[in-house]
Write a structure and sequence with these properties.
The protein is α/β, with parallel strands linked by helices. Helices cover about 30% and strands about 20% of the residues. The strands form 4 sheets. The chain has a 5-stranded mixed β-sheet, with helices on one face. The longest helix is centred in the first third of the chain and has 13 residues. The radius of gyration is 21 Å and the shape is globular.
Length: about 350
């Protein structure tokens, strides 16, 4: 009860402007570690757990994005390396987080997150599933990297990338099916419908850190698929294991990540193209025009030419005084814009269709 009173007296959210925090992060000189983890577990009081995490994690300068729901926790964070032991102590004092597997980033410049956000959500992964009989704990079989490498070579196996199109575009496992979807909730019904005649054949799934394909494997079993597997720890853990065990890397290109870095290299290939000029490139960026903020792939040449904007229109708007830009945005709803393969409407998107 004392802790609840303590929480109530605190500001359990960030109160500093994001632009200031980004600038501070550039020059703070702190060696930081980027970590992700998740856990499907019943949490009765998600709001209280959210406040508990914010209170303890902010005290050791944890930054990042954490979703808490009645079905569990999903976290992508950055912490000072010097505070790692304190972070582990906090986690180990929470029964269901004790000794939890942590995915450490491969390419880590310490600039992945600039503030801490702990949010209560309906689900830790938005899945669109509205079925009271669905049991998310009835998952498929976990695969380590070595097992995964072996099984995906079988001719009867369907290998499915459970990520969104803008993730798989820059990197994926060879011979994987890459559904052209914008969201996880869109992928589940599309995949089950497409494979409805192959329910007796093995299905292998993978995603970034394991959280999506763990739930997807349960969904596939719920829909009658008999032999379902998923890559434990996702691409991040796969990369660690192939390096530690000297295994063949079967991932092509770069792994998309949901932080300021937007990607980390797994394979040496560049398999994507600049969305503006078509040259080989796998670097995502957001349009510098705040009214657009489109997520797209841009090479250094086009970045220089258009000042990190997605089009000449956005470049012209971004060059206006800030007050004029704000006036143009006034009254308009902001939303997350993502380059859509083959379905774009901006001039540079149309040019690259087909």
């Amino acid at each position: 009860m004392a802790k609840i009173t303590k929480f109530a007296a605190m500001k359990l959210y960030n109160q500093i402007d994001s632009k200031i925090l980004k600038e501070q992060l550039k020059d703070d000189g702190v060696l930081r570690l980027t970590i992700s983890f998740y856990k499907y577990v019943g949490i009765k009081n998600a709001a209280f757990f959210r406040d508990y995490l914010y209170y303890h994690f902010s005290s050791i300068d944890v930054r990042g994005r954490i979703y808490v729901a009645h079905e569990g926790i999903n976290a992508q964070i950055s912490i000072p390396k010097s505070n790692l032991s304190q972070f582990l102590e906090i986690c180990n004092n929470i029964n269901f987080l004790k000794n939890i597997r942590l995915n450490f980033a491969r390419e880590d410049n310490g600039k992945s997150f600039f503030k801490l956000k702990v949010l209560v959500r309906d689900k830790i992964v938005a899945d669109g599933i509205d079925d009271a009989t669905f049991d998310a704990s009835n998952t498929g079989k976990y695969l380590k990297a070595k097992e995964f490498n072996e099984i995906i070579e079988r001719e009867d196996v369907t290998l499915i990338d459970m990520r969104n199109h803008y993730e798989s575009e820059i990197g994926h496992f060879k011979n994987a099916w890459l559904p052209d979807v914008d969201t996880f909730r869109e992928s589940l019904p599309k995949i089950t419908a497409s494979l409805k005649t192959r329910k007796d054949k093995p299905v292998v799934m993978y995603c970034t850190g394991g959280i999506r394909c763990e739930k997807a494997s349960a969904y596939m079993k719920h829909n009658g698929f008999e032999e379902v597997y998923h890559l434990e720890g996702g691409i991040i853990e796969y990369a660690r294991q192939i390096e530690a065990e000297n295994l063949t890397n079967k991932f092509l290109g770069k792994n998309f990540v949901f932080d300021e870095r937007l990607g980390e290299t797994i394979g040496n290939e560049v398999i994507a193209q600049c969305h503006q000029c078509g040259s080989p490139c796998d670097t995502h960026t957001n349009c510098a025009n705040e009214a657009c903020h489109l997520l797209f792939i841009q090479c250094e040449s086009c970045k220089s030419l258009l000042n990190n904007c997605c089009s000449t229109v956005c470049n012209e708007i971004n060059a206006l005084p800030i007050d004029e830009q704000r006036a143009l945005r006034k009254g308009k709803k902001s939303r997350r814009n993502i380059f859509k393969k083959g379905r774009g409407t901006l001039p540079f998107m149309k040019k690259n269709q087909g």
